[in-house]
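On clarity, I found the account of how folds are encoded harder to follow than it need be. For illustration, here is how one protein appears when written out as sequence plus structure tokens:

:::
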Amino acid sequence: MDNITKMYENIQSLFATYGLKILGAILFFIVGLWITNIITRLLGRLMVRRGFDVSLQSFLISLLSIGLKILLLISVAGMIGIETTSFVAVIGALGLAVGLALQGSLANFAGGVLILLFKPFKVGDLIESNGQIGTVHEIQIFNTILLTPDNKTTIIANAMVSNGIITNYSKHGSIRVDLSTNVAADNDMNKVRAVALEVMNNDEKILKDPAPGVFVSKLGGYFNELSIRPYATVENYWDVYFGTLEKIQKAFAENGITAPVPSQVLISKTA
């Protein structure tokens, strides 16, 4: 009987010492979770109004939510009486160890955040980066995925993309297609230019604004080199690139515009 009484007194003593702290910590934890949810929802609404990328929205909200919950747990532990300095030190040491082990991944992660924040390109843009050209298929946290013109998937680490040179061909909505061909030097260049422009102006895939251009870029002994400059959208770039010269060459043949023929000089030897 004395043991039961003593045990009951010990329980009362423990409850008097820690009960209110535990109840207060539980209440603080519940209120903290409620405030955390409110803050993350407000951040989500703010990013929607500011037009943040959807991928960036979910990433930042998750990062903020995890950070606030870790701080909440540390605060609750301190209220109960757990020594938080050692707890924080352990978390810091673990974070340092993970950071050292994942240096490359963290660099790619930081590159992905920079790309999502500053938006040098978006999904659907035709870009060139690290010697690779293709349409942006997906922007992930660690990698950027391109779809090349020959339908291959190219995966580039975001650290390489963010630290390298990025050429965005889609930024202004139109891309200039650089083409060249040769015609015989004795052709009427006004007629040559008019025929080439007519072909491009009648092509629905070639933009009229900016207008296409035809220029003489080189004069040879028996040929003139033409620089042909149509503009196209991203979707029609490769169709214009591969189809325009064929159409122009066909129109040249129909209008009597001749191709260059190398001249040959015959030297006779006399005895």
